[in-house]
Fold this protein.
Amino acid sequence: MKPSPTPAEPEPAGPTGPAGPPGPAEPAVTTVTAPAATDRSQPRITLRSDLRASIPDGLIALAVTAGVFVLLYARIKAKTSSTVSVMPFMADAGGFWMYFLSQAFGWAALLWAWTTVVLGLLLSGPRPGRLPLSGQRLERLHRTTSLNTIALILAHALLFAAELVRHDTAGWYARLSTAFVEAFVPGGYDSGTGQIAMPVGQAALYLAVPLGLLFYIRHRIGPKTWRVLHRFVIVVYVLSVWHTLLYGTNVWYDGWFRTTVWLLQLPIAALLLGRLLRPARRSERLSRPGAHSGSRAGWGLRLGGRLAAAGAVIALLAVILSGNDGGRTVPPADTSSTHNHD
């Protein structure tokens, strides 16, 4: 894209692309040169410093995970969970506790991913008039929730693999090999709905880790390259939600819980649409095709992004209001063949 002929504007504090799980916000960069003493007084943002700062948030994430696990376990024991309908053999809560713990980490990961996306969009788009936290504190919280999202996703995947190992009757080497292939290799899991849901979740994992950590080497790859790559973190979030709706036994059937998952996507779609309609960077604003200094292809992509975000808002409203959220209405006759992780 050609540079804009207008004078350069200060860079916004947040990322230029829609933020998702994970993707720390870019610190403010201005054209004003600050005094040397002020520069030295500003702490340098590093992965180590953010890992330390993420500890309180991580402890909260573990507490939430523990609470979700207790709830899932209690519902299995009481046989009120849809998981028992989908997989009757899992009525033995004690025998499959590791699987339920993996589920708990998965739900916590999705919640932290949702929080990360919302924070990122608040940082990079038009903000409400009053927020309880300053922009700098929101930015740091965005980075720490991003790191904890990665940790929760990894824990979810590793516990799922450990469950596969624990219930395999083959030798230890064969068990490890089979679990690795089924949990981490796209196409390695060949059971029912998992043939689609597992590669979707694996794609979210393999995109989340590098896209989240690229922030800490953005000066090596270039801020512009980082901003372009950072836009793809919204894809990670979409894949995570898709994986959950496809394979989450807790939202397998129609009901308020599955509808709530859809409902929670509405604020994100609205914030994304607001971010695209009112971008902080002048170069991303949508002017008339003839008045824009960049290429027509770039202008078309910006217009397409706005139309897609508007379409997402309309589609979500249609799903929520109609109740047609893709859930199953009648349990299949042979549940063991449709959602069996053995």
Summary: DSSP finds 14 helices and no strands in the chain. The longest helix spans residues 135-166.
